Automatic annotation (TrEMBL), chain A:
Cited Pfam families: BPD_transp_2 (PF02653)
Alphabetized UniProt keyword annotations: Cell membrane, Membrane, Transmembrane, Transmembrane helix
Originating species: Ureibacillus acetophenoni
UniProt topology in membrane: Multi-pass membrane protein
The keyword Repeat is assigned to this record: no
Name of the protein: Nucleoside ABC transporter membrane protein
Subcellular location: Cell membrane
Annotated Gene Ontology cellular component terms: plasma membrane
Highest taxon in the source lineage: Bacteria
An MF annotation (GO) of this entry: transmembrane transporter activity
Transmembrane segments: 12-34, 54-72, 79-97, 103-124, 188-206, 236-259, 271-296, 316-338
From TrEMBL, chain B:
One Gene Ontology CC term in the entry: plasma membrane
Name of this chain's protein: Nucleoside ABC transporter ATP-binding protein
Similarity comment text for this entry: Belongs to the ABC transporter superfamily.
Main location: membrane
Listed Pfam families: ABC_tran
Subcellular compartments: Cell membrane
Membrane topology classification: Peripheral membrane protein
Domain ABC transporter per the UniProt entry, residue ranges: 5-240, 257-501
Length: 349, 512
């Protein structure tokens, strides 16, 4: 079997297997799998409103996935996308409501602010890793909680004690009357174009630039990179910073698109953690992440419809969605089976 | 004469690739039978068939005259076949005994009976002169000792037939001598041995008979006493091989590398290079001979900028490069074939073409304005792949998938093509077969003939003697003497390497 047919076939088989097992779970729990899946389908594509909301859900997942994937490609595990996202969210919301500027400056400025603040939040674990060898997983997790616990006082500080910021000015908003009108007033926004640009940017950095070559080399083999005269420490910091910028952009999508503000939080939003799954599902490739985010966001948004329309309880919905993702993620097992069947060449010594 | 193992007409293929075709190997009781072939000739495949890891498509296996089907390694174990792997299968932080009983733990009332096992290990160790402490931790013992643990492991499980897979690849010369004695003792005690190797001298030293395979085909079996290394090499490679490296007299000119009173410490802060002085001139190959661990690794790392210099001075092309970053030193005219090609020389997951760009990726013509031109990378790599005869399925094949010899040729191609004034070659032929070794030596000499300086570090005396124009012997962090290959011999070098200064000091090679 050629690797191209395999690349195409594996995800499809994985998802079908996931659907089958999800159906079994629903059937065993006494709910109709057919009704359940119809409700899931409708939740994703059933109405223009649902479709708009699905796109809206996908957008931050793309950025969160890119953030995690970028760090992975350089051999780093950025588990702190959550915190970087929160800080980016705040930065974009603040720039969005605190300034009054023409859109052509205001919107890019708000987006840039989110990317910068996300990058700064990731710079701290990056520099600690490079200079002192502190493991980035520990620091990024801690940075998540620092972000969570600082966000409410920050919001209060810029709003004279309110629990949420004012809405961002229209000149900084990604929402559009046009998109709302064709999707029955969903919260779909222009962020999807920025997400596609994000995918292209990551691909461009990794596959076209000299810096990308270095980042990948450092990710695969630090010793050989050092031997080749690369500055390993600088590349570690840079990788975290770029990863954090993507995470900050995920926050910008929430601030300027979905909610148009930021409100006090009592727990982490979870998009950053899901980003880990999105990145792994997408094999840390930009295009892979894009499709993985589509799958993830669709299931997330479609699942909301399952309790209403088919009476499947939330818990079962979570299990079914988890199963589909589990199978999609274990694609390498299916690859292995296909390899065995195709009796493809093994390494010969 | 009875055979303990007979493999008759074995054929094994993977997809379209025939790894073994019609190979016959017959092992007599109490003999050391060498299995000779180049890297990739199919030696390991054949042994994996015998060990039950692969099932042959054709051919039969007989053990003690009876036909058997070896479906998995457990069957092989039961039949008394044990394998001493090239890469040891040991748990680092377990003791010797714990490793030996692993997977087969003797229990007494629900707990592991480590005492009895240790006693048995001790007995085996004494009987075969292995000198292994049953309670020592693996991480604390030498590589040679770890190998002996592997040997005891097979004996403990009742092996009568021992397969040694390239056993000397990672051993020092002394450890090799010890291993040869152990193998002879095993034979005396009635065991039979299959020795997989591509080192001809080893075969001449220890084996009784040799079976040669080439490109998966059985070439034949000969008595060691009736053959010689040249004939064996020809049977293995399929063409004539020159052992004496042909070279014209050197014409050394200006000093390219100068190391003065250098001190370097290792990772644990132990001083490894202790006031070393060395000079390498353009147009000569200086070989550093010495036993592993006498400061060679630290010396190279200091010169190449991978390790901090404690004190002293390193000059390259009259420029002080002490403490410079690797890139700066590279650009000052250094080429470096690193000791560990997997650790330092290659990014194994990168395509081979991207690996060939590893030292030049940031410069024109490959990189312009921060954008890398992968098309250029591939065309430049393509020329090097052709010129240096790197055998690879494509220029986009991951470096990991290439054989050791071809990986090394790619590294050498990358370093030589940059035309460095000084080429450091650290163990450039480790683990390679005769054909590749011959090729690499020729390339090193070619560099020197083109007026470049070459610094060769090797643990193999043959290599140092054959290739170098001057030999600097390193011992305990200093060059204790410099000799000319023509005026010395292996005994003398051996003494120097062991730290015995010669009574008649002969520093004919100038002060190095």
């Amino acid at each position: 079997m050629s690797s191209r047919t395999q690349n195409f076939l594996v995800p499809i088989i994985s998802i079908i297997l996931g659907l089958i097992f999800g159906a079994i779970v629903m059937a065993v729990s006494g709910y109709s799998p057919v009704d359940g899946y119809i409700a899931l389908w409708n939740g994703i594509f059933g109405s223009s409103y649902n479709f708009g909301e699905t796109v809206r859900t996908i957008i931050p997942y793309v950025f969160a996935g890119l953030a995690v994937a970028f760090a992975f490609r350089t051999g780093l595990f950025n588990i702190g996308v959550e915190g970087q996202l929160i800080m980016g969210w705040f930065a974009a919301a603040y720039v969005g409501f605190a300034f009054e500027l023409p859109m052509i400056i205001h919107l890019p400025l708000a987006i840039l602010a989110a990317a910068l603040v996300g990058a700064l939040w990731a710079f701290i674990p990056g520099i600690l890793k490079a200079r002192l060898g502190v493991h980035e997983v520990i620091v990024t997790i801690m940075m998540n909680y620092i972000a969570l616990r600082s966000i409410n006082p920050l919001i209060a500080a810029v709003t004279d004690g309110a629990e949420r910021t004012p809405k961002v000015h229209e000149s900084a908003s990604l929402r559009s009357d046009f998109l709302q009108s064709i999707t029955d007033y969903s919260r779909m926004h222009w962020g999807f174009i920025i997400a596609i640009i994000g995918v292209i940017v990551m691909w461009f950095i990794l596959e076209k630039t000299t810096r990308g070559y270095e980042l990948k080399a450092v990710g695969f083999n630090k010793n050989a990179s050092e031997y080749a005269g690369m500055n390993v420490k600088k590349n570690i910091v840079l990788s975290m910073v770029i990863s954090g910028a993507f995470a900050g952009l995920a926050g910008a999508m929430e601030a300027l698109g979905t909610f148009n503000n930021i409100a006090a939080m009592s727990s982490l939003p979870g998009i950053g953690f899901d980003g880990i799954a999105v990145a792994l599902l997408g094999a840390n490739q930009p295009v892979g992440v894009f499709f993985a985010a589509i799958l993830f966001g669709s299931l997330k948004n479609g699942g909301i419809n399952m309790p209403n329309e088919a009476g499947v309880p939330n818990e079962i919905v979570s299990i079914v969605i988890a199963l589909i993702i589990l199978f999609a993620a274990s694609g390498y097992v299916i690859r292995l089976v296909l390899d065995r069947m195709g009796k493809s060449k093994k390494e010969v010594k | 004469m009875e055979y303990v193992i007979e493999m008759l007409g074995i054929r094994k293929q993977f997809g379209d690739f025939v790894a073994n075709n019609n190979i016959t190997l017959q092992l007599k009781k109490g003999e050391i039978h060498a299995l000779l072939g180049e890297n990739g000739a199919g030696k390991s495949t054949l042994m994996n068939v015998l060990f039950g890891l692969y099932q042959p498509e054709a051919g039969i296996i007989k053990v003690n005259g009876k036909e058997v089907k070896i479906t998995d390694p457990n069957v092989a174990n039961r039949l008394g076949i044990g394998m001493v792997h090239q890469h040891f299968m040991l748990v680092e932080n377990f003791t010797v005994t714990e490793n030996i009983i692993l997977g087969n733990e003797p229990t007494k009332g629900g707990t592991i009976n480590i005492k009895d096992a240790a006693k048995k290990v001790q007995e085996l160790s004494e009987r075969y002169g292995l000198n292994v402490d049953p309670y020592a931790k693996i991480e604390d013992i030498s590589v040679g000792m770890q190998q002996r643990v592997e040997i005891i492991k097979t004996l403990y499980r009742g092996a009568e037939i021992l397969i040694f897979d390239e056993p000397t690849a990672s051993l020092t010369p002394q450890e090799i001598t010890e291993l040869i004695q152990i193998m002879k003792l095993l034979i005396k005690e009635g065991k039979s041995i299959i020795l997989i190797t591509h080192k001809l001298q080893e075969i001449m030293d220890v084996s009784d008979r040799v079976t040669i395979i080439r490109k998966g085909e059985g070439i034949g079996t000969v008595d060691t006493s009736e053959t010689n290394p040249i004939q064996l090499a020809e049977m293995m490679v399929g063409r004539q091989v020159t052992f004496k490296t042909e070279k014209i007299d050197p014409n050394p000119t200006n000093v390219v590398l100068k190391v003065e009173n250098l001190f370097v410490t290792d990772n644990r802060g132990v001083e490894k290079v202790k006031g070393l002085n060395l000079e390498v001139r353009a147009g000569e190959i200086v070989g550093i001979a010495g036993i592993d661990g006498n400061g060679q690794a630290e010396l190279i790392e200091a010169i190449t900028g991978l390790r901090k210099v404690k004190s002293g001075k390193i000059t390259l092309n009259d420029k002080d490069i002490t403490g410079n970053k690797p890139r700066k030193i590279t650009e000052a005219g250094l080429g470096h074939i690193p000791q560990d090609r997997h650790k330092h020389g290659l990014v194994l997951d990168f395509p081979i073409s991207h690996n060939i760009a590893l030292q030049t990726y940031y410069k024109e013509p490959i990189s312009k304005g921060g954008i890398i031109d992968y098309k250029k990378v591939r065309t430049i790599a393509g020329t090097i792949i052709d010129e240096f005869d790197v055998r690879t399925a494509s220029d986009m094949t991951p470096a990991r998938a290439l054989s050791g010899g071809n990986q090394q040729k790619a590294i050498i191609g990358r370093e030589i093509t940059r035309n460095p004034d000084l080429l450091i070659a650290a163990l450039p032929t480790r683990g390679l077969d005769v054909g590749a070794i011959e090729y690499i030596h020729k390339r090193l000499i070619e560099q020197r003939d083109n007026g470049k300086a070459v610094l060769l570090i090797s643990f193999e005396l043959d290599e140092v003697m054959n290739v170098s124009d001057r030999i600097a012997v390193i011992y305990d962090g200093i060059i204790i003497d410099t000799v000319l290959p023509k005026e010395t011999n292996e005994q003398e070098l051996g003494l120097l390497m062991a730290g015995q200064e010669l009574s008649s000091k002969q520093s004919k090679g100038g002060d190095a």
